[in-house]
């Protein structure tokens, strides 16, 4: 597929405010399955944009503004070539076919915090117990276990659109029995870490070819799990899918909060903020 993605965020204020620097994570991550053909990033009012790369290798744009304004519009446009297969085959190392398995020492060191549960967050023990409930016996197939977890989450968690900022804790999502895509992905990631495997959060775009041509996508959050031999395998528990066929990754991190598309604030009256609007248009070219 060749896709054009337009992501537009608009903030409105009751009176002119002074904008603080805005951190923008909007540039797709190129890999064997994805190539960025063109990209542009515009801000209204005009901004000075500084490009950097974070510790995860994500492209980060920092937009700085000089004039007060009563509105801020951020528009990202990219064209990508998407080659992910519908039914991927994973060449998992024979030593990792059966669960539990052991990473090499190098892998364990390099995965670091990506393979460690967040014990500092309340309810971590409950999440670990819930995750272990998917293990069918002392020896089971690793990929089958991950697929069961990916497909079985929606038996316990109901998807709901949530406009509030931030991500629920995994334990909170379990207790409430509902969450947004980022909440469901965060619970999946934490469950995988409790099972002793490395996992990372992914943000990007969902491509839905069943929607009208000018409305075929949205922002989305999902997960990847590291298995020796196969590398990082994509799991989308919100849609019970495995593989990247319907996904365009923008950024990877330990937690969702590290890769929100737009973060920033303003200096002024707290009541000055009126609204935020986000639109994503994805067209198949």
Automatic annotation (TrEMBL):
Residues 173-239 form the Transglutaminase-like domain. It comes from the Bacteria. Gene3D superfamilies: 3.10.620.30. InterPro entries: Bac_transglu_N, Papain-like_cys_pep_sf, Transglutaminase-like. This is Transglutaminase family protein. It comes from Sphingomonas oryzagri.
